[in-house]
Write a structure and sequence with these properties.
By secondary structure, this protein is an alpha+beta fold. 28% of the residues lie in helices and 27% in strands. It has a single domain, classed as Roll (Pnp Oxidase, Chain A). The longest helix is centred in the last third of the chain and has 14 residues. The protein is globular and about 35 Å long. It starts with 12 loop residues before the first helix and ends with a strand.
Length: 147
C-alpha cells in the first residue's frame, strides 16, 4: 500500500530528478547511478521528524528477493538522514525495483549477517569498501524483505 502523506522531494536536484524519471518510466529510465551503469532501486519511507513521505535512490544490492540498503553517505562521518527514517519506521517502507513498488520491512543487520550483506554490497558497488576506510563509523546496512 502506498505510504500516505505529503511527499517532500530531496533537497538535492539530481535525486529529485532521478526519482521523478525512474517512477514516471516504471523503472525503465534513470535506473542507474548517473553514468556508472550500475543499477539502483528507490525506497520510500516516512521522515522521522517531519512525518513526510521521502524517496531515496540507493544502489541495487539484491539477493533472493531481499535487498540491502547501505547507509554509506560516501564515507561521511555521519549517517545519511534516511538512516534515521528507516530506524524510526522500519515497517512503513516501500521499495521499487522496476515497474511496481512493493511493501517491505527493514531491519538493520549486524555480525555475520551484516558481513554477508556487506560482501554482496561491495560486489555490487565496489566503492563501498573505500567509503568504509574514509570514516570512523561502521557503515550501517539494512535488509529489506517483502511483507
Amino acid at each position: 500500500m502506498p505510504i500516505e502523506g505529503e511527499y517532500e522531494p530531496s533537497t538535492s536536484q539530481w535525486v529529485r530528478d532521478q526519482v521523478e524519471e525512474y517512477e514516471s518510466s516504471g523503472g525503465t529510465r534513470a535506473n542507474t547511478l548517473r553514468d556508472t551503469g550500475l543499477p539502483i532501486v528507490i525506497f520510500t519511507t516516512r521522515g522521522q521528524r517531519s512525518g513526510k513521505v521521502r524517496k531515496t535512490p540507493v544502489m541495487r544490492v539484491e539477493h533472493d528477493g531481499e535487498y540491502a540498503l547501505v547507509a554509506s553517505k560516501g564515507g561521511a562521518p555521519k549517517n545519511p538522514v534516511w538512516y534515521y527514517n528507516l530506524s524510526a519506521y522500519p515497517d512503513d517502507v516501500m521499495l521499487q525495483d522496476g515497474a511496481q513498488p512493493f511493501d517491505v520491512v527493514v531491519e538493520q543487520v549486524h555480525g555475520d549477517e551484516k558481513a554477508l550483506w556487506w560482501d554482496r554490497a561491495v560486489s555490487a558497488f565496489p566503492p563501498y569498501a573505500e567509503y568504509q576506510t574514509k570514516t570512523d563509523r561502521e557503515i550501517p546496512v539494512f535488509v529489506a524483505r517483502r511483507k
